[in-house]
Amino acid sequence: MDSAALLSRVDELPRLPKAISELLEVVNDDNATVKTIATKLSRDPLISAKVLRLANCAYYGHSREVGSIDEAVVRLGMQTLRTLVLASAVMGAVPKCNGVDLAQFWGQTFEIALYSQEMAKRCGVQPDEAFTCGILHRIGDLLIAAISPEDAEKITEAVAQGKDKHAFERELLGYDSPDIGALLAQNWKFTPALVQGILFQDHPKDSNPFSKLAALLCLAHKVLADWDTIEDDDKTSWLSQLATKKGLKMEMGGLRVKLTDLRGVGFEIGKALA
Q1: Do residues 246 and 218 touch, judged by C-beta distance below 8 A?
Q2: What pTM value is reported for the model?
Q3: Of the N and C termini of the chain, which has fewer Cβ atoms inside 10 Å?
Q4: What is the pLDDT of residues 223-249, one digit of tens each?
């Protein structure tokens, strides 16, 4: 990574709005009441609308539609609410990018985040941190598209021609998309472990110390790409071998069913929040 090239772009990185930072503080407060959270949410019409849409989407919804923020908070639960507010903050903080299919981008991002969250429960990683890392892991792609759309187009063309994406980014820009995504996470004051997870997402074993978050991202991408091509009876052994190869010791009991049930949920959530 060319640190000078990357650091020269720091001032162009988006900032988390103060209102979002305050909202994150409230939903991360274990002592906060439903009423407190609902009141705070109600002050942000955009996120309030997203919370209601998500509470009523097929994955979280029930036969009766909820129409109030209080009901939505109760239905979703604190963990889901925390991740939703974070995801909404990220989606709202990054500028719109011409040439990027945001519905597809965020749908895939949520798929990776949900797989990472589920697998994290089985290998000693905090599930919320794995989800957060999944939400942020490709943010560098959007930042490059926002900062330099011409370069983003060149990168897309190079990948279509079979070139290695990150090698081409480094050749063109002096840094690659995980570099700038990790810098954003650092500026937003996420944990060093999460920053390392983003930075080493394509080569987790290069991280010192070893990054389980990065390894989970690698594994989640394999699940997204190849899951439907593997016979059901072979999925557990396939996943176990991949986890070991990525450096993870993972409990496999029931994981095949969980991941199968999650297929497509991320795309549904992304659509609800777009």
Answers
A1: yes
A2: 0.86
A3: C
A4: 999 999 999 999 999 999 999 999 999
